[in-house]
Amino acid sequence: MAAPLTLLLIVAVTIRAALFRSSLAELIAERVEVVSPITAWKRVVEGLALLDLGVSPYSGDVFHETPLIIYMFHFLVDYAEITFMVSLNKNIILKHFVVEFRKQKFALEADRYPMDSLELIRSPKEMYYIPLKVAMFYLLNPFTILSCVAKSTCGLNNAVLALFFLSTIKGNVLLSAIFLCLATYQSIYPITLCAPAMLYFMQRQYIPVNFRRVSFWWFIVQYLFMYLGSLFVLICLSFFLLGSWDYLPSVYGFILSVPDLTPNIGLFWYFFAEMFEHFRLFFLCVFQINVFFYTIPLSIKLKEHPVFLMFMQLAVISIFKSYPTVGDVALYLAFLPVWSHLHRFLRNIFLVSCVLLACSVLFPVLWHLWIYAGSANSNFYYAITLLFNVAQILLVSDYFYAFLRREHHLTNGLYLKRKDGSEATLILK
Amino acid sequence: MGLLSDPNRRRALISMLTRLNAPICVVCYFAGVAWFMGLAFEPFTLRTYMSENAMGSTMVEERFPAGERALATGREFAAHKKKVGGMPVDWLVKNMQDRGLEVFTQSFSRTLPFPDENKERYIVKGTNVYGILRAPRAPRTEALVLSAPCSPGDSNNQAVGLLLGLAQYFRNQIYWAKDIIFLVNEHDLIGMQAWLEGYHHTNTTGMSWSPLQGRGGSIQAALSLELSSDVITSLDLVLEGLNGQLPNLDLANLFYAFCQKIGVLCTIQGKLQRNDWDSVSGYSHAVQTMMLMVMKQASGRPWGDHGLFLRYHIEAATIKGVNSFRQYKTDATTIGRLLEGMYRKLNNLLERLHQSYFFYLMPSLSHFVSIGYYMPAFGLLAVILLLRALDLWVQLNTPPSTTEDGVADIDQVRHTPGVLSVLTPLVISHLTGVALYALPIRFQETAVEHFPVSETEAVVLTAIAIYTAGLALPHNTHRYYIMCVCGTEQGWRVLKLIAVLYLAVLLGCTALINFSLGFILALTLVPLAAFVTPHVPKVLSAFILVILSPACTLLFSVFFFQELQEMPVSFQDGWLLYLSVISQGILDHSLYGSLVYPLIALLVYPCWLLFWNILFWK
């Protein structure tokens, strides 16, 4: 296990190092698919320059990262490349552990279900390679490589999220709350991961999810206290570092009110560029609620499966967030091998992967036609953005359906019979 | 959502698609070809119309009087050109200054990667002269360009004369709201490239030029004039630019409108427009015109000096004066009036030309086919690839004893082919592609030392040699497959699935950027991608595969193009032309950054090699 992983690490680092040195790095760092106004390294450098001059980095409209990031890079700017490498690679090793712990759960499942469902439960041999596959999916994913070479701070966010997963799966409540709070502090949206984290801990500590139980509420209060406490500490720390509250509107206001309509792979820019100004607030609310709203139905449906819920939430965030980049997409794509046991129930995987592949190639082509050749226009680019997101949504819903279907088969047996004895099929309507 | 979630209907659809795969593919192919041929049929096309409001409704008068004087200036220019033996820079500077322009010169030099035998040049040194007429009526933030090439020999002297004549006349008018730049460029496209790079402060091709001393505003439109005789019978409009980019259709409309107004015969691709669209000969005339445009666009070359402007978002076209044996002649004054009218309309522009189409084909100057009409032709071809991919996917996923919809038997043994068996052909064919791209220019000196060939021949022949050597590939790689013993049946299917999807994405992107190139490649590559398996008769299929390979496509295109131009060539001449086309392609890439050569070498050829590989799969 260790040897292939080391090999993988070496390959991944070599690819990145080679790209850092090549002339492509500059080109990649400019791509709108790879960097967003929040995560662009160029903007971080600008913020650092302002900070060095003794001006608040938020005084202009360039820098939108959080104060902690800028102070971190204040000390690390010379080693920026290394930092990104480390953050990425750390990320992987973490994921690797995440999956190790998934194994235990599957072992538990084995003796609970009818005999003919047994083939649905993964054998330990299959599970053995999953961490490696996850690491491979993340490290060799072109999306991650691009995002790392562009020095997008998205890599750091992903690392924090991965740490959160690790600590959650390990069952460390305090660390989990702290990392979740760090992720939230970075980009608000991970707040929706609160629900799966709490559900996971409750499942682990055998606390029933019941609104009438005191223990349930007590746990929620505990977790929220830790979470909000550390959030409070972080926000105050930022305030003391900067000496002003400038950063709140500049970071969170920027994320929530979406003033920068640079095209990206998300859904916001085109709508808000086209919209009449007086509808803006309304649609802003509609679009932002999208990210948070799915937490409720998903948590109710998946309350027994918090880890899958986490995956779903992550995907929803990266699809509906205001400034998505391919780095965000790569994070949840890396989790796909964890659900490799669902593959037999996936229905549209071929279609979806073709569309995702074609879209990723078409992004730069249409961008070229729009911006450089001037012959196409924004509609072409947005069409591809839309298709890309539809494909992502199909992918996620396909996995969701497959998961539910597997659950159904686990309890009802794999070969369903109708009452008259003929073979039955499941239809989702 | 019904189709995506209802397993019964899905199963029915998929089984229909797999059962009827071959017939559907054949139908799609012929439907695509038929659709494409139908595009030239006049009732299916749209009439051109002026979309740009600023150019459509405003009236201008053309009063340019001084055609004869312009021709006299042209003769004087010719005399000085002969005396200096190149561009008469001092004479031009003085003349432009006399006409009240701000005059600047730019010198440039460029060493070609290998000698260009068509134009007989290797180390190119030259000077561009340009004069700026400052706009009296507006803040000089925008500009228009009129250019004429200073070509060797006797050609294009009249164009320079007319340019100077127009400059003198324009100088006395007060309505100019945009700077007008009069440019005489030496060494046609190389000079133009130097000037444009200097104007926009870019350097994309590693050329050396002196910086420009004077600039106008941002250039909105440009016309390049080519005129080699005192009287002409018709004017030809050339639109195709670098990488098959076309200017906004409104520019063509503007030209057509003024030709109509002034009464000049106008052609596109050298073909007059005919009114008998319902007769066979009328239709074939339209097809010829459209096919010429398709061939020219597919070549990715700039077909006139305007071709490089398009890269900088500047709408540009070349206007060529043609003097044939027709009775009806047009003199220089009329051409001057036509250009005056066009510039006055362009002068009225409030924003860049953007209202009309950028993606179009023209079966005649008055009719066009827009992207919405011609894309289905390509789409029908691309669908074949997707259908084949779907078929392969189903074959890979459903061994006989399983039901669709994922519920499989326990004892199903998955023969997943090793990553290695699929990765090796991919990597090797791409490495061959890289060799094809990089080696010909690198190895020209070595080749010249060892073989009795010139540099240009060395480059072309090395390219052909590498291309042919690539065909030996399967024999080199199947030794690796022995390492992977598991299901070779599955192995080639996986490889073919990848290759088919790769081809689909590749052709799709190509067709978006350059429809003609994408379509021509699709015409030849799609059928071979659809039928190749290791089980078809080897020799015959190998022959078909070679015939349909990109290089042979190019060879046929050369003959076909000559045929369309009504200048058929013998096989010997055709072969020589073919060699020169390859060298031109490589030169275009290194001089102007044309993308066709790298596209073919780095992507299309490796993709074709994958299919070659599948045929010889062991």
TrEMBL record, chain A:
Intracellular or extracellular location(s): Endoplasmic reticulum membrane
PANTHER family attached to this UniProt entry: GPI TRANSAMIDASE COMPONENT PIG-U, PHOSPHATIDYLINOSITOL GLYCAN ANCHOR BIOSYNTHESIS CLASS U PROTEIN
Annotated transmembrane regions: 130-153, 173-202, 214-245, 251-272, 279-296, 308-336, 348-373, 379-401
UniProt family annotation: Belongs to the PIGU family.
GO biological process: attachment of GPI anchor to protein; GPI anchor biosynthetic process
Protein name, as recorded: Phosphatidylinositol glycan anchor biosynthesis, class U
Cell cycle as UniProt keyword: no
Taxonomic lineage from the root: Eukaryota, Metazoa, Chordata, Craniata, Vertebrata
Organism: Oreochromis niloticus
Topology term for the membrane: Multi-pass membrane protein
Gene designation per UniProt: PIGU
Superkingdom per UniProt: Eukaryota
Pathway this chain belongs to: Glycolipid biosynthesis; glycosylphosphatidylinositol-anchor biosynthesis
GO cellular component: GPI-anchor transamidase complex
Pfam families xref list: PIG-U
Keyword Signal: yes
UniProtKB/TrEMBL annotation, chain B:
Topology with respect to the bilayer: Multi-pass membrane protein
Transmembrane feature ranges: 20-41, 371-390, 419-439, 451-473, 499-532, 539-561, 595-617
Gene Ontology CC terms, in alphabetical order: GPI-anchor transamidase complex
Gene3D superfamilies: Zn peptidases
Subcellular location: Endoplasmic reticulum membrane
Annotated keywords: Disulfide bond, Endoplasmic reticulum, Glycoprotein, GPI-anchor biosynthesis, Membrane, Transmembrane, Transmembrane helix
Main localization (coarse): endoplasmic reticulum
Biological process (GO), any one: attachment of GPI anchor to protein
Pfam family, one: Gaa1
Pathway assigned in UniProt: Glycolipid biosynthesis; glycosylphosphatidylinositol-anchor biosynthesis
The protein's assembly and partners: Heteropentamer. Part of the GPI-anchor transamidase complex, consisting of PIGK, PIGT, PIGS, PIGU and GAA1. Interacts with PIGK.
Biological function: Component of the glycosylphosphatidylinositol-anchor (GPI-anchor) transamidase (GPI-T) complex that catalyzes the formation of the linkage between a proprotein and a GPI-anchor and participates in GPI anchored protein biosynthesis. Binds GPI-anchor.
Protein name: GPI-anchor transamidase component GPAA1
Organism (species): Oreochromis niloticus
Gene name per UniProt: GPAA1
